[in-house]
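Letters spell out the chain; backbone shape is given numerically. Take this protein:
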Amino acid sequence: MSNQIIGFTFRSPTIIFGRNSLDSIGSEVRDFGDALLITGKSAMKKAGFTDKIEDLLKKVNINTHLFDKIVPEPTLEMLDDCFQFAKESKIGFVIGLGGGSVLDAAKPIAALYKEDISTVSEFMGKEFTKPGIPFIAIPTTSGTGSEVTKNSVIKVKKEGKKYSIFRDPLMIAKIAILDPYITATMPPKITAASGMDALVQAIECFVSLKANTISDLLSINAIEIIGKNLKQAVEDGQNIDAREKMAYGSLISGLAFSNGGLGAIHGLAHPIGFQHDVPHGVICALLLPYIMEFNKDICKERFALMAEKLDLDVKNKSIQERADKLINYIRNLIEEINLPTKLTELNIKKSDISDIVKDTKGSSLNANPRKATPEFLTEILMSAL
């Protein structure tokens, strides 16, 4: 790592972190007016957290309007339905309770609420003209980092793509509440995929061309915490210590990449996710060791530092050996938490690769430490079949 302090702009919500931190929501929002609670179809209701939030808000005389129709990989049309419901409900603030899909759906509802529009769709391609209403992010998974980012990744069916439809500091949550007891409701498969998403984000950020002094501190810390606790969280979801550490690791991973960039994995993940209906964390995890091999010669010093932070047996090993040790550790971790390691396991064939590469573009790809040309991307995907 360089001794030079690199200039940066750092953006973040107010963060309330810790066990039972959800209990503080009433005192934080008591003057905001009526609430729109956006969540998924059933998980949080079954776990009791939807009712708990409504009860906590009722104690401070806040009425709650519930929109519980968000599904994984939400569409622009779904946002339009939610936006219309929000307008009809005459709300003062928005709460997003869920994983990355729910939070990404909730952000634009709050950010666009005061714009002179009747649907989210009609704002596509326009610039924000005024601040929206407060957005409170309550993540239920430890993975996406959406609670601290300024963008919203949504499926746009008519364009056949999934991408950040809006990206603006006005999208950042006013408050993010991270309570590890909420994440304890997540099953092992989601815990594994979301946790690997957070780890991928931290690793990509640490070697990103857009990384800066503060993102380096956050990302290397996130790599250490997630790398040491993910397997335990998957195997024993009720271990609140592991859940708490994963929640923290995911949080600082999100803070890191939202200020320091990502890389080729995320450039590839969005077209694969859309074209083949693959969960984001699953495809990010699968691609990780292949992209690390691709970047290794340029990033081996940073990979070696990661290996040290993860307490791998690298004493008296060369930089190259340490980098290789790290990549092997990542491969083993993915297998141990039962995530796929080959594209064929996701029904992706050789004939699909050209379409994936054609749709791979954007800021994440441009921030990759080694230039990822279409030829290289094709080679990487072929090796992952």
